[in-house]
Amino acid sequence: IGCEDGSVKIFQVVPGGIQFERNLDRRKGRVLCLSWHPSDTHIVAGSIDFFRVIDVASGQTVQRIMVNHHVEKAKRECVVWAIALLSRGTVVSADSFGRVQFWDWEQGTLAESHTVSTSAALSLAVSEKEDSIVVGTSTGATYQLQLLPVKLGGLEKRWVRTKPFQYHSHDVRAVAHSPTALISGGLDAQLVIRPLMEKIQKKGYDAVLRKFTFPHRRLVSCARKARLLLFQFSQHLELWRLGSTEETGKDGEVLPLCRMPEHLVQLKSKGPEHIYCSCVSPCGTWVGYSTASRFQLYRVRCDGDGVSLRKV
Length: 312
What we know:
mainly beta, Methylamine Dehydrogenase, Chain H, four-stranded antiparallel β-sheet, single chain
């Protein structure tokens, strides 16, 4: 964990949670991003105007590299927003000047620099084979860089920016690189999965752009004892009673119903505000929901086959 006071803390993952183990070397400057070396021997920590490499065994900083001295007349600070430490000893940094830079951390030298955006580069992720990188920027654009041979069939390779994608309208704060796709998430609350073109058979717009908007909260709640389900919609709630069967079977089997699912009641929200969250109690006698400004609680009474709601 990297902290605002410049410290890096190691925690051990234990059954049921995490446990503090020790502090690593503390230096002046906020820690804004971290990356482990694949062998777990070193950690690289990005800050403002510099990053440093820490030896995990000793806890000491073994290299400190300035990232802004290559910018002529740089009057503003250079924020290292994302960083990655590759297995061959290369450090990849993404900064507020829109650059993706490749460093030899043992020598402390800059190997390559790519300006991918006129605004900040906020996030980066590296493929498992370390031959492809996806970068997210504050303009909503994502970029792919690939490690390609300088000459066809040659051994010398360089990083090349190959593909730009403009699928977001706001900052791209999170990216991931799977074996088959580039994945990005932004402040526009969109998750974009962009399959790698060489990994798919059918090449077209539908295959390339897949957007998913995930609900931020659970939209279905269950009253186990009463066998009720509450479904949340933007302006109303629906309360259903589960069907039942007299048969038994194995997991996954579809059993014949002796009683069909039953729609008990629909509760409409008053006013223009959307329902923010909702819940039914385990016993099934209380239903509550909230909008951005108010909370409503109802008592549910089941009289035979009829159901009544009383506002509390």
